[in-house]
Specification:
This protein is mainly β. Helices cover 3% and strands 49% of the residues. It has three helices and 36 strands. A hairpin with a 2-residue loop joins strand 4 and strand 5. The protein is elongated and about 65 Å long. The protein starts with 5 loop residues before the first strand and ends with a strand. The N terminus is likely disordered.
């Protein structure tokens, strides 16, 4: 039997149409690379059609972001401009564009990629909305709705768009489009908003003893947490008796609260937004990877004696005398803030390079016993728009190495703190400031370029091997 027809409807809930929202990476990946407007795609939502004929799938798309003023204010001068794409499996199968400049009200339409118009409509939607148009698809599956702006002069705006997929009845029956499922009130629209909202957040608690992550019986929700397009997971590992949990599958989750012992056994684990780690995480096997982004608070331990630790777009705070992050093998550091306080230790000897965000990052150790150890670095790249701040204070210790370049400020404010810079080979576009009797010896450095040096209150900045001073050395 041939597949039933699938029909998608696009309706604006307000007269303003074709606005913009965050672009989902999965939808972006489906856009053909040859299209010149790929980089301007600003909105995407996923529409999955069910198989039941005569039914209707609804999705509310909350649309916010930067867009042309003319699109937000209909009929204010130049033509409203925008483009709506319906994307499936890498190909644009429908497009919508706005009206001519002389028309004070846009005439949106949908058509196939060849330019043929398909069932255009304006002001024939129900309720307060305006029907943008219709596009019929005979292929079941997942579709992506993408909104693209045309022209310059963007400003911020907000609106809503509804996407409805209506399914044809089997051949031989009345194929008239069912309309009884159209949303006609704000209350009904709100009830369907979750269909296209960001992925629902599901809280998952470990309820088993020691065991495998993939075993659904170990979870209170009855499934092993792993993000999907429709659900993301906040995971809590706090089982009685401090169980050992073996992560035996690749997983991506939204957040992790770990009070247990988590063994990453040769797989990849990614925490996208937040981690609170009072237990132990251990990487086992050369293929094991742990990627942490967002806020990472460590009062327990991360032991990356094997595999790879990735700290990406993260703020890592290691707090307490027993708190440790030990990664002597492979470490990737990209746009990350590193803080060791109250005796916490960040030993990242496996990191060969440190790449800052353009706005700069911060690295500091504060308190006796606190340490940030980056003595395995070959290169350290500071900020661009703003400087990266590196500081040792109140008895804390920071160890650096390699060629330091980019906008970077290194400081130490007391004689009890430690700035281990014996492995630093060069300084460029860097400021070093010591005070209150602090001492730093750059025993391996040979070259200084565009640096600012300051030692006050009996402090000493020593460069016994320096042979080149390029573009001046400033300071006192």
């Amino acid at each position: 039997m041939p597949p039933f027809a699938r029909k998608l409807f696009f309706e604006s809930l307000e007269p303003r149409v074709l606005l913009s929202a965050d672009l989902a990476p999965t939808a972006s990946a489906l856009m053909p690379e040859s299209r010149t407007d790929n980089q301007s795609a600003l909105s995407s939502t996923i529409v999955s059609l069910s198989d039941a004929p005569g039914t209707s799938d609804l999705a509310i798309v909350q649309i916010t972001g930067q867009l042309k003023t003319e699109v937000l204010e209909k009929g204010s001068g130049p033509a409203d401009q925008g483009q709506l794409n319906l994307v499936k499996q890498g190909e644009v199968i429908s497009q919508s564009a706005a009206a001519a400049e002389r028309d004070p009200k846009p005439y949106p339409w949908l058509g196939v990629a060849s330019g043929h118009e398909v069932a255009p409509g304006e002001n024939d939607g129900r309720g307060t909305g305006t029907l943008i148009g219709r596009q019929e698809s005979l292929v079941a599956g997942t579709y992506y709705v993408q909104v693209l702006p045309l022209g310059d002069g963007a400003t911020s705006g907000q609106d809503q768009m509804r996407v409805e997929g209506t399914h044809a009845v089997p051949q031989g029956q009345d194929a008239q489009e069912p309309t009884t499922n159209m949303v006609t009130s704000a209350g009904q629209a709100a009830a369907t908003a979750s269909a296209a909202a960001p992925a629902a957040v599901v809280l998952a608690h470990w309820v088993g003893g020691s065991g495998n992550w993939s075993d659904p019986t170990n979870w209170d929700i009855g499934v092993a947490p792993n993000n999907t397009a429709s659900e993301s997971y906040d995971v809590v590992l706090d089982g009685a008796g401090t169980p050992t949990i073996t992560l035996d599958q690749d997983v991506v989750i939204r957040s992790l609260n770990n009070a247990a012992t988590l063994l990453v056994d040769g797989v990849r684990a990614t925490v996208e937004q937040a981690s609170s780690l009072s237990g132990v995480i251990s990487l086992d096997g050369a293929t094991a990877q742990l990627t942490l982004s967002g806020t990472v608070d460590v009062s327990g331990e991360i032991q990356a004696d094997a595999g790879m630790l990735n700290l990406i777009d993260a703020t890592v705070t290691v707090d307490g005398a027993g708190a440790r992050v030990i990664a002597d093998r492979a470490v990737a550091l990209d746009a990350v803030d590193l803080h060791a306080i109250h005796g916490g230790v960040l030993s990242l000897l496996g990191a060969a390079s440190f790449n800052n965000s353009s706005g700069g990052n911060s690295i500091d150790a504060s308190g006796v016993g606190s340490k940030v150890d980056l003595s395995g670095l070959n290169t350290f790249t500071g900020g661009a728009a703003s400087a990266t701040q590196i500081a040792a204070s109140s008895g804390g210790a920071v160890a650096l190495a390699g060629a330091i370049s980019g906008s970077t400020v290194i400081s130490m404010a007391d004689a009890t703190s430690i700035l281990d810079v014996a492995g630093v080979t060069s300084l460029s576009d860097t400021s070093v400031s010591l005070s209150n009797g602090a001492t730093a010896t750059f025993s391996g450095l040979t070259e200084l370029t565009r640096v600012s040096l300051d030692a006050s209150g009996g402090s000493q900045l020593l460069f016994p091997m320096a042979t080149e001073y390029i573009n001046g050395v400033r300071g006192s």
